[in-house]
Amino acid sequence: MSPRPSRYPQFAIPLALLGFSIALVPPLVITIALRLRELDLTGAAADLGLILGVGAFFSLLANPLAGRFSDRTTSRLGMRKPWIFSGAAIGYAGIVLIAFAPSVPVVLIGWSIAQIGLNFALAALVAMLPDQIGPGRRGRTASFISLAQNVGGVAATFFVQLFPAGLGQYLVPSLIGTVLMVAVIAPVKDRVRPAGPREPFDLRSLFGSFVFNPRKYPDLGWAWLTRFFLTTTQFTATSYLTYFLIAQFGVSDEDAPTLVFQAILANAIGIVLVAPLLGWLSDRLRRRKLFVIISSVIAIAGLTVIALAPSVSVVFAGELVLGAGLGAFFAVELALIADVLPSAETAGKDLGVANLAQSLPQSLIPVAAPALIASFGYLGLFLGGAVFGVLGAISVTRVRKVR
């Protein structure tokens, strides 16, 4: 009789992704924006769009490559852990560079390094899901991951606002997240690939790291589009939140971190109220698509409330509703993608390509947002995000293999 699989990975993977979020969110949502206002007050909004866009481009490169490389890794540590550990170290080095940056171009370099390193770690962490968790537990594990990543956002912004402006604000929260990510994943018994002949890694394989054939695997293609559309909805509500509060409600730079923390907290409360129940129901009912459609409708309502908010308190209410919608989505979307993967042998690579659907909005929104805001204000930005929620609800209906 084979030994019963350990349940530790079911909790370790979400906890590691909690650490990942605590490491990533402070520069992404708050500290880069504030650092740019110190270095170039008049051009800070345009600088932010450029830096987030370039950083997201590097995440597009790093994520699928790390997934492909981890599929081929034959280390005695395992296939995934070497990439998690090295990625965490590289990512934090980039964040340190941002903290000490004397100019905007150095912030750009630091964020690019951080995105490369952290996406190395992210790709390997997500690839652990099909390695370690069977189909019958993927829904609830995906809901734990959703909770962890979004509670990570709350924890990160909470840590940031504990510190006065300066190095502590830039360095300590991300350090906490990096240490947590590495510490909880270290005891996991990683999947080990036997040493032996492997397919050569040539130029074709390199470019193949970034794609899959949607005609051959249409369910994965539609699941990819669903993630892309709803991640766009999510990122629309967070990428310019600091500047939205400053411009729309006259919030000071000193008060902005606290109010961003409160907004992210409201969002996370919505997720916590919804995600665990729906992840459990998704496994029990063997259904994924219904919950994605429900999430899209709720997220659209939340973004609309934020777009029309007459006060900061109404923004918080909109974030609460948006969080409930996103909680419904993130409770099942990773399980949905894992259920339609073509093969366990290429899981890291295929999940890396799926992760592009999370990274692309981070690249595209900063490019498009300044023009949208200049033409239509923040109303246009947020309502534009709501349109992508509609597209997400439509695309998930085309997935055939999953109910």
Kindly list the characteristics that best describe this protein.
mainly alpha; 403 residues; Growth Hormone, Chain: A
Q: Could you provide a short overview of the structure?
A:
Its main location: membrane. This protein is an all-alpha fold and 403 residues long.
Outline the fold blueprint.
Elements: H1 8-39, H2 44-72, H3 81-99, H4 104-132, H5 138-162, H6 167-185, H7 203-208, H8 218-236, H9 241-249, H10 256-285, H11 289-307, H12 312-330, H13 333-339, H14 347-396
Would you write up a description of this structure?
It comes from Amycolatopsis jiangsuensis. Its main location: membrane. It is found in: Cell membrane. The chain has 403 residues and is mostly helical. It has one domain: Growth Hormone, Chain: A (Up-down Bundle), CATH 1.20.1250. Helix 1 runs parallel beside helix 5 and helix 3 packs antiparallel against helix 4. The radius of gyration is 20 Å and the shape is globular. The protein starts with 7 loop residues before the first helix and ends in a 7-residue tail after the last helix.
